[in-house]
């Protein structure tokens, strides 16, 4: 899977399928995208390769912990975010920037309490007024990948700092 920004200055490639795809209907996502929701495909950051110059912008979030949005330096299109929970371990790739966004349909709708009333959801996709339990909803393989991602990060954190 691959994608990029509008001007073509940045391209990215996912080395595996995303672990899971969230469709968030919170008012923060509505405001930040200028749309009815944000559709994010979650993948381990070390499985995301970027080609081109990006900038990182910190935005406030409803949690108060903020989110880091990675954008093309030229056209400013948001390509993915890092949220406080996983930090830079996981990238929440904006599905609309993928070459084939239809390959990543939503697997859950979240924060539907603030969903726009004219938007009709597919009742075959789970929907929650708030957030959900990953352990209850994510497939076992995705949960295993998430645990492996956290384990890799823990190993890196335990390494001594290089000498200057």
Short description:
By secondary structure, the chain is of the alpha+beta class. Helix content is 18%, strand content 30%.
The CATH superfamily turns out to be glutathione-dependent formaldehyde- activating enzyme (gfa)
Q: Report helical residue fraction.
A: 10-25%
- Percent strand equals 25-35%
Rg on CA atoms, Å: 16 Å
The beta-strand count equals 10
Compressed to H and E, one letter per element, the order equals EEEHEEEEEEEHH
Choose one word for the global shape: globular
CATH topology: glutathione-dependent formaldehyde- activating enzyme (gfa)
CATH architecture type: Alpha-Beta Complex
Task: Count the domains.
Answer: 1
What is the CATH class designation?
Alpha Beta
The mean pLDDT is: 92
Strand order, main sheet: write it out. Answer: 6-7-8-9-4-3-10
For the report, how would you describe the main beta sheet? Answer: 7 strands, mixed
Unreliable residue runs: none
User: SS-based structural class?
Assistant: alpha+beta
From the N-terminal CA to the C-terminal CA, the straight-line distance is 39 Å
Keywords:
164 residues; alpha+beta; glutathione-dependent formaldehyde- activating enzyme (gfa); seven-stranded mixed beta sheet; three-stranded antiparallel beta sheet; 3 helices; 10 strands; 18% helix; globular
């Amino acid at each position: 899977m691959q994608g990029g920004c509008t001007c073509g200055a940045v391209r990215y490639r996912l080395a595996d399928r995303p672990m899971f795809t969230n469709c968030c209907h919170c008012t923060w996502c509505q405001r930040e995208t200028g749309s009815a929701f944000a559709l994010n495909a979650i993948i381990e950051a070390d499985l995301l390769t970027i080609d081109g110059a990006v900038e990182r912008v910190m935005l406030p979030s409803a949690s108060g912990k903020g989110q880091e949005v990675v954008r093309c330096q030229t056209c400013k299109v948001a390509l993915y975010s890092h949220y406080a929970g996983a930090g830079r371990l996981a990238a929440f790739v904006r599905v609309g920037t993928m070459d084939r966004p239809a390959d990543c349909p939503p697997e859950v709708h979240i924060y539907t309490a603030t969903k726009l009333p004219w938007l009709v959801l597919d009742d075959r996709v789970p929907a929650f007024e708030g957030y959900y339990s990953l352990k209850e909803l994510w497939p076992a393989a995705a949960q295993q990948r998430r645990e492996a991602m956290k384990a890799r990060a823990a190993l890196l954190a335990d390494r001594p700092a290089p000498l200057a």
